[in-house]
Design goal:
It is built from twelve helices and 15 strands. The protein is of the alpha/beta class and 357 residues long. The chain folds into four domains: 87 residues, Up-down Bundle (Chorismate Mutase Domain, subunit A); 94 residues, 3-Layer(aba) Sandwich (D-Maltodextrin-Binding Protein, domain 2), CATH 3.40.190; 75 residues, Periplasmic binding protein-like II (D-Maltodextrin-Binding Protein, domain 2); 86 residues, Alpha-Beta Plaits. Strand 3 and strand 4 form a beta hairpin. Helix 2 packs antiparallel against helix 3.
Amino acid sequence: MAKDDLTRFRRKFDEIDETLLRLLNERQAISQTVGQYKSANGLALFDPSREKEIMDRLEKLNDGPLSSEALQHIYREIFSASRAVQGVLRVGYLGPEASFSHEAALTQFGRSANLLAQDTIQEVFRGVDRDRLDYGVVPVENSSQGGVGQTLDLFLEYDLSVCLEIRLRIHHHLLGKAADLAQVKRVYSHPQVFPQCSGWLAKNLPGLPLLEASSTSAAARLAAQEDGTAAIASVLAAEIYGLEFLARAIEDAEENVTRFLVLSRKPGRRTGRDRTSLILTVSDTPGALFSLLKPFAERGINLTKIESRPEKTEAWKYVFFVDIEGHVDDEPIRQTLEEAQRYTQRLKVLGSYPRVD
């Protein structure tokens, strides 16, 4: 490439950037008008179904070379900025700052949302329930560690809806202020993280003390304060606490994904590609669970998850958490749930929301 070519390309970039800026401001002006309509008619600022429709349409139109992942990142911030001119969106997540729940909240709601760290998962539920938060982001399961029991149990206690799911690819990085691994004397992280990185730790840091922290972000804070200390935490933690990457992606499993659910006081509307979460309690009789699941199989409804938890109020009694494909307003699912109620002591719909595959 000649110097004249580079100059020409830079001028072209400037022209494109000016066009983008004009269009983004035009989009923001329309967002303000839409926000006024929503406010006057009591509509929610955040409509996950509509945002999913936009992203699906854009991904189909995208011929590249811009990747789908890059397109999603760009539009998450555009959506976030558009919501910000319509009003303040309060989103709670399991803190502290730089936790994976924080990263999941940023991934979905963008940096223009008012993201508020909560001390516990219960505080996230309580904040949404009492209208201190508009939405809450809570972890529900990890691909290698299984379900998050506290989240599942709290769905029994609070009458909230799930309006969205977020799937976050989890990378664990070794962070610190040391010059190299030889200077690391101890490693902090959340206790669930060490088993996910046990192979790498045994090979590269054998015999070093592995110390528990209340969260990966708390571990990063310790690494920033103590000499010879490293933390296993996220990219966001490195950014916030000013840490260097001593090793990247040290998790043993190639596919380490955590699934988060977004809590709301209002149910979500149908998109055509949805998932529905349920709580079921069956009677303690032979064949009760089989009878309950049979209507789903007969109508070809796919169960993507079924997990049992002990019923807190009665010994040796279990509650089933079930995910199915489809929306509660779909006729086959509505009919199936009506039939399934004959075999349940309790059937609670947690919510229908856009499906993430």
